[in-house]
């Protein structure tokens, strides 16, 4: 599209560090700080983070009983395997007679995040939605009455327990934007179907929908109704529930309970490292090859799956700086490969062992090393040692 | 994962890892997490700065626009429109609005400035000064020509021709049909050719 304009366009330049610093100083120096009694700051400082796309997708089954989808670059490559799993769940519950036969299923739109996949399916001409998680499958009821946005052809068909939402899109809508409170998310829309993988589902939250975003002239926003709960839910890959009796388990359970939407497979996550700083409590968690961080503040909690399928890819991953109230110091929270031990040396202090639970760890960081939320602490040196005594990593926990 | 820390280490340790998505980062930023916003800043500031230069033909203005764009992005972080998981198209659109407002305010000033030698703030030892000045002049001519387009065409040109976004992404961002973007670009190309060929 732009080839013929290349001669008119200035070639991009590498941005000099001093210019970057000046822009940063102006942009951040003027950035107003949110009026919050307790502002939690997470400085993401890991080597590289979640395999949300490439590794996640490529490491999963690529069975192909849906060749059209497999050739479609907009459809996740393992969608066919997910369709099979969705159908198998219906078979296991004896409800296949309510659905068009499997051979007519075609993946139309997909949304993925670590630990969860949502697919909009044309089963014959019938729209069907299926969510798969580590342990379960949820399939929408094809006979359920769509709940339409008043005066439009856009409707909601299904909402799952973990906040996946699917529906049909008015053909005149180029996009489906769903708002609640002051937040907004754009749905993945294709071929008359739309999906969003996580919306808050509390009864007190009102959803509104629009075909455009704020700023578009004559923008119309209308209430988006909730559908009935008629989906088929099957736990097809059961595993033992995670501990909820230990301090970290109790904290994880409480943190998940306050998270909106509730995390997928919430009860199966196993608690890891637990730490608190300045009124903020953080607990790491693991579910098979997934790891997550659950953070509790006085007014809210967030649960974030930070990685999937790469637990052994590198010794140290997803290190964050958690900072509560000013002056309270900070905590570094992160994950290591399975089966390594860890020691930390901060400044001139003697090295000490760091407990690792379910691959998660937490380290206290003195305030002087992290005076600001965006500070990158230096002088925090760690050593990761494998069971055979070889060193997996030795160096700064945070590097610039 | 982030330009703040350990990014090179991570690349060395695993070739199968990918950065945290804009969507995840922006979700955290929307909740007030300034450090997540800092990661987005580091990820996109260079592209944005180059885009702002194409919008204005001035590196100093590009610097100001880049700062103002991120400042605006922070204040409007709850309204961000991610296009295929990227915040960059939306940042381009914000930069375009800022550049237009800036130009309206200071059009007279800019007309005067353009008669003067350009204030070059970026050293580039690979280019000769003469070539650089020529490039700046050419970029300003393009920027001026784009500024003279009707508003609808200008928005499409800024995103697709200057920002090199796809027409589909621009359509999503502008909330219009892709075919509309294409027709706007087609009309704009004709106008721009006429103007730019006249200045060559």
CATH architecture classification name of chain B? Orthogonal Bundle
CATH homology-level superfamily of chain B = Winged helix-like DNA-binding domain superfamily/Winged helix DNA-binding domain
Residues in helices of chain A, as a percent range:
10-25%
Structural class designation of chain B: mainly alpha
Q: What value does the average pLDDT of chain B take?
A: 71
Radius of gyration of chain B: 18 Å
Strand elements of chain A, count: 26
**Annotation field: number of helices of chain B:** 9
Using CB atoms under 8 Å apart, which protein chain pair has the greatest interface? A-B, 76 and 76 residues
Low-pLDDT parts of chain B are 1-18, 104-131
Please name the CATH topology of chain B: Arc Repressor Mutant, subunit A
Q: Strand pairing plus helix content of chain A: what structural class? A: mainly beta
What is the molecular shape of chain B? globular
Regarding quaternary structure, what we see is: heterodimer
What coarse outline of chain A follows from CA principal-axis ratios?
A: globular
Beta-sheet strand percentage of chain A? 35-45%
Provide a descriptive summary of the structure in words.
The complex is a heterodimer of chains A (400) and B (200). Chain A is built from 5 helices and 26 strands. Chain A has 400 residues and is mostly beta strands. In chain A, a hairpin with a 2-residue loop joins strand 9 and strand 10 (183-186). Chain A is globular. Chain B is an all-alpha fold. Chain B has one domain: Orthogonal Bundle (Arc Repressor Mutant, subunit A). Helices cover 72% and strands 0% of the residues of chain B. Chain B contains 9 helices and no strands. Chain B has helices at residues 7-13, 22-30, 34-56, 59-75, 88-113, 129-147, 151-162, 167-174, 178-199. The N and C termini of chain B lie far apart (45 Å). Chains A and B meet through helix 1, strand 1, helix 2, strand 10 and strand 19 of A and helix 1, helix 2, helix 3, helix 4 and helix 6 of B.
């Amino acid at each position: 599209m732009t080839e013929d304009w290349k001669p008119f366009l200035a070639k991009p330049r590498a941005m000099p560090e001093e210019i970057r610093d000046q822009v940063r100083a102006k942009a951040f120096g003027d950035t107003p700080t949110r009026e919050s009694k307790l502002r939690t700051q997470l400085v993401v400082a890991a080597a590289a983070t979640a395999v949300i796309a490439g590794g996640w997708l490529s490491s999963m089954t690529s069975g192909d009983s849906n060749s059209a989808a497999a050739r479609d670059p907009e459809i996740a490559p393992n969608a066919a395997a997910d369709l099979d799993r969705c159908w198998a769940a219906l078979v296991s519950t004896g409800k296949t007679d309510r659905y068009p036969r499997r051979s007519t299923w075609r993946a139309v739109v997909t949304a993925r995040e670590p630990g969860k996949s949502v697919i909009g399916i044309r089963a014959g001409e019938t729209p069907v939605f299926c969510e798969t998680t580590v342990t379960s499958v949820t399939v929408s009821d094809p006979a359920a009455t769509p709940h339409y946005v008043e005066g439009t052809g856009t409707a909601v068909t299904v909402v799952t327990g973990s906040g996946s939402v699917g529906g049909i899109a008015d053909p005149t809508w180029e996009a489906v934007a769903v708002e609640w409170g002051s937040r907004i998310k754009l749905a993945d829309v294709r071929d008359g179907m739309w999906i969003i993988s996580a919306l808050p589902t509390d009864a007190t939250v009102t959803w509104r929908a629009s075909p455009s975003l704020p700023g578009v002239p004559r923008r119309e926003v209308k209430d988006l109704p909730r559908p009935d709960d008629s989906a088929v839910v099957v736990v097809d890959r059961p595993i033992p529930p995670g501990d909820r009796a230990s301090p970290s388990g109790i904290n994880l359970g409480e943190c998940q309970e306050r998270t909106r939407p509730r995390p997928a497979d919430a009860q199966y996550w196993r608690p890891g490292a637990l730490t608190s700083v300045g009124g903020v409590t953080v607990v790491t968690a693991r579910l098979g090859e997934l790891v997550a961080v659950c953070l509790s503040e006085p007014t809210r909690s967030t649960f974030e799956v930070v990685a999937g399928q790469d637990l052994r890819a590198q010794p140290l991953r997803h290190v964050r700086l958690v900072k509560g109230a000013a002056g309270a110091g900070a905590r570094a929270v992160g994950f290591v490969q399975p089966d390594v031990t860890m020691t930390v040396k901060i400044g001139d202090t003697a090295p000490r062992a760091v407990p690792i639970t379910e691959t998660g760890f937490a380290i206290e960081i003195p305030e002087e090393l992290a005076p600001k939320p965006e500070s990158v602490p230096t002088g925090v040196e760690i050593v990761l040692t494998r069971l055979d005594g070889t060193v997996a990593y030795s160096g700064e926990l945070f590097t610039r | 994962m982030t330009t703040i820390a350990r990014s090179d280490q991570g690349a060395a340790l695993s070739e199968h890892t990918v950065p945290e998505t804009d969507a995840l980062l922006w979700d955290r930023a929307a909740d007030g997490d300034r450090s997540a916003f800092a990661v987005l800043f580091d990820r996109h500031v260079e592209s944005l700065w180059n885009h702002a230069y194409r919008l204005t033909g001035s590196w100093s203005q590009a610097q100001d626009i880049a700062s103002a764009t991120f400042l605006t992005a922070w204040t409007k972080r709850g309204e961000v429109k991610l296009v295929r998981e990227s915040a960059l198209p939306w940042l381009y659109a914000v930069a375009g609005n800022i550049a237009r407002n800036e130009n309206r305010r200071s059009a007279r000033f800019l007309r005067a400035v353009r008669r003067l030698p350009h204030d070059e703030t970026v050293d580039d030892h690979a280019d000769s000064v003469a070539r650089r000045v020529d490039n700046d002049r050419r970029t300003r001519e393009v920027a001026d020509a784009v500024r003279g387009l009707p508003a609808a065409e200008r928005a499409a040109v800024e995103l697709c021709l200057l920002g090199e976004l796809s027409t589909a992404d621009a359509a999503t961002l502008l909330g219009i049909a892709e075919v509309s973007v294409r027709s706007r670009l087609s009309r704009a190309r004709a106008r721009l050719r006429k103007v730019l060929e006249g200045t060559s």
